[in-house]
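User: Can you predict the 3D structure for this chain?
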Amino acid sequence: MSFIHDIRNSSRLVVVVALSAVALGITYGYDISNIAGALLFLEPDLGLSSGELAGLATAVVVGQIVGALNGGWISNAIGRKLSMQLIAVGYVAFSVLCAVAPEYWSLLAARFGLGITIGISLIVVPVFIAESSPSRVRGGLTVAYQVTTVAGIIAGYLVAWGLASTESWRAILGLAAVPAALVFFLLLRVVETPHWYLMKGRAGAARASLEHVDPGRDPEPLITRIQSDLEQETGRLRDMFRGHLLRASVFAIGLGFFIQITGINATIYYSPHIFEDLGFSGYAALLGLPAIVQFCALLAVIVSMFIVDNAGRRPVLLTGVGTMILANAVLVAVFALSDGLGGWTSVVGFAAIVLFTMGYTFGFGALVWVYAGETFPAKYRALGASLMLTANLTANAIVAQAFPPLLDSVGGAGVFGIFGVLAAIAFVFIWYLAPETKDRDLDEIARYWANGARWDTPSTRTERTGR
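Assistant: Here is the predicted structure, written as structure tokens:
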């Protein structure tokens, strides 16, 4: 429980940052799942066609891609704090607009705006947390965002179930404004990150910010190192694809892509179809089993949150991906040998889906936010997060479109065999390219790439950091 101990002994600002991440994660997760319940009542109320229903779900995904592509430069231009405040305002505004939309096109526009807000938040939130947290709790705080995202997904299902008797899709969609409003008021109490201040040449403000973030530490050595690194950076997107940053960009884009192309959202979007193929039927397959899966996923990411700052990033990530590979092998066997397994087919298949999802949230789902906030130097940090999350969303769209025809053409064994191979490739990719950033200051991680993907020697690190 050292993570909780470290949080308790951190500054009040770090606690506020943690609460802000919690509330935004719940909002994001709730907006992922609430549309599933709302769609049940939207169709008869507004007289929507199946194409229009699909449009409402797709509008958010398209908006997320637009937001992710633009979140980096917005954050660099106006600051992390103001960006976070605008995200909170956007969540409130577009959630309310969804709730009061009189017809399809206004609802579609509000859903698109909500998607843009989500896309920007996916970029800004991990950067904000990384730059506002001491290194000893940075990983756990960033994973906390994923913890509360999963909790928000579960909350969306439960709220939709609780309001089902009212058939009020407006209430289901509009309630997302509540945690977002809480975030806005919390953010009034935080300071801008020191890295952004230094990007703008405001050393005095950066010094004050560092004293708020980590009051027991002398800020001068860190300010000097960050300023030195900033003087060597241009902040231009094209520079991320040459020189020492090329390897970092390849890692970020590859990690973002593998996180989704390995199939997690296929098991979420099409879980009823998968469970039906495994032999389940009725409401257990449509509602009960997905809820159980997500609850187990929540437990896995909570464990990840508590151990990531002690065990390290690489062991957690590799363990999660390895678990996904094992689960895929079991699913291939279940679908290929279903006749031989008899009455145990459904139970073993369901357990494998649970294992697959837990492996994802323990590894990929938790560490994407950590690496999104840690990988790049200050001037490139938001742009790098934008690259990673854009690759993530692109792979998400590919899987969402490709999974149904693949399932029809090659069957369950073929599909999960493909996902297993992709997960194995991801494991090798992570093994060779993912740095271990535990207990490293952000400027040290920047120098790792500048040194040809090598850490400073212990003597050099002691000389630079004094520890």
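The first helix runs from residue 2 to 8. The chain has a mean pLDDT of 81.
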